[in-house]
Amino acid sequence: MRSMGTIRTRRAARTAAALLAGALTLSLSACGSDDDKGDNDPTGTKEAGSTVTLPKLNGESLEVAAVWSGAEQANFKKVLEEFEKRTGATVTFVPAQDPIINFLGSKIAGGAPPDIAMLPQPGAIKQAVEKKWAKPLGSEAQAELAENYSQGWQDIGKVEGKPYGVYYKAANKSLIWYNAKVFENAGATEPKSWDELLTTAQTVYDSGVTPFSVGGAEGWTLTDWFENIYLSQAGPEKYDQLAQHEIKWTDPSVKDALTTLAQVWGKKDYVAGGAAGALQTDFPASVTQTFTGGDQPKAGMVYEGDFAQVNITQAKAKIGTDAKVFPFPTVGDSAPVVSGGDAAVILKDSKAAQALATFLASPDAATVQAKLGGYLSPNKNVAESAYPNAVQQKMAKALIAAGDDFRFDMSDQAPQAFGGTPGKGEWKHLQDFLKNPKDIAGTQQKLEADAAAAYGG
């Protein structure tokens, strides 16, 4: 969150980078489920093997809003079903649109806000508090947070020291996935540095396959590219300063990062479909087109977080065999470690809403979704064995071991008008930069103008 001391603390990213870099070999394991029931207690239930006591909520109805779709939505609904089973409540998932703050505003204006919203930006949590929409977490949810989360993950859900958000979902946004057959045919190897990435890209290109797939239709994927380069090249202190708008987007460090980014985006035929094609490609398609078409897919590599596994699976590719992954390469002194997440925020304070927030802060809820894949939890008490394959198990272990040594997605820390609105602010200007990566100075000026307006000067 923009005012959070934890976010602004100058934490070293090297430890977490080294840990996350090890999360790249695969094997499969499974974790059994516990379906024992204990719902005879009229005041609360705690199932056998459970870590959390929940109240009886027979006849209660709840709505949870999130921008999730596809497999991500379906998997989260299974978590809600578990809550229903344990409490007797009925929970309805409400599909939301980006930006979710605008969606919630229309719901609240109509007198029908959801009970809980899953907010993907710390800036959005702050806005919800400032608008007096968000309700503080109760003592039970706070107790679960204290028991299960590092201080850093607790703090980014706070506004002015008061807890409002449960970070139910986390993401490692410093990964590049690749088509193993394409690399094998080309004789390409996994790069560790930016220069090696450019060499690998040329090797793939020379083999007859376009190196990169970019989901430019969704501006957030482009901000993630920039953030990884900027964090590694400029360093964590500059990253924190730019995230808080303590330095301007016209700073030379931004020029350096955009210049580096243009080495991929501005290279002829390095992006599938060119800039025009990338700007019509959404994130799911950017992943699936990398792993369909046999050994002649539309691209050999795609950058994005651990959650891309869901889309890889939808492409009928096998992780560890058809699809492999390496950490985002080092541009400066150390490899970047950029994280993101989604927080549950209560909008209608009630016993049922507080109970659901408490459940989402427990290992029980996260374990349900962890087993389904394509998901990481910052909850330190979720067993590694709950994750369905070794890559996710190691990523989860690294995420927890990193503690507070991470940097939260920069655009998610920004006011939503700048960092989280389709067709505006950072999303729009990086889409324009993808179209014209020679216009570095103009892009900086536009970014700074919108950032100054959004941050208030």
Automatic annotation (TrEMBL):
<feature type="region of interest" description="Disordered">
    <location>
        <begin position="31"/>
        <end position="52"/>
    </location>
</feature>
<dbReference type="InterPro" id="IPR050490">
    <property type="entry name" value="Bact_solute-bd_prot1"/>
</dbReference>
<comment type="similarity">
    <text>Belongs to the bacterial solute-binding protein 1 family.</text>
</comment>
<keyword id="KW-0813">Transport</keyword>
<keyword id="KW-0732">Signal</keyword>
<dbReference type="Pfam" id="PF13416">
    <property type="entry name" value="SBP_bac_8"/>
</dbReference>
<feature type="signal peptide">
    <location>
        <begin position="1"/>
        <end position="32"/>
    </location>
</feature>
<protein>
    <submittedName>
        <fullName>Sugar ABC transporter substrate-binding protein</fullName>
    </submittedName>
</protein>
<dbReference type="InterPro" id="IPR006059">
    <property type="entry name" value="SBP"/>
</dbReference>
